[in-house]
Amino acid sequence: MYQALEPVVGDLLNLKETLSSLTSHARVARILTALDSVANRLNGEIQTAPSAQDAAQLRTLYRGFISAGRLVQNMHELRTQAEPD
Predict the structure, then answer these.
(1) How far is the first Cα of the chain from the last one, in angstroms, to the nearest whole number?
(2) Which residues lie below 8 Å from residue 80, measured CB to CB, with a gap of 6+?
């Protein structure tokens, strides 16, 4: 379920450096794609959860991945706006 994160784990672990890099746009795009992929997969799992408790836990994870993507996007936008022209 979380395999989509494997290629971007280094960028996530060093997010400050990722956001500051010259290639930040491409790297952030890959992170956002990975987080979205996991969120979509979780959303699909919610539909087939064996119990209401499992579905609730999957919904929590889903919302967490959506929020993580928004945070990374917002931090990237703030960093980009702060860069001098």
Answers:
(1) 40
(2) 24
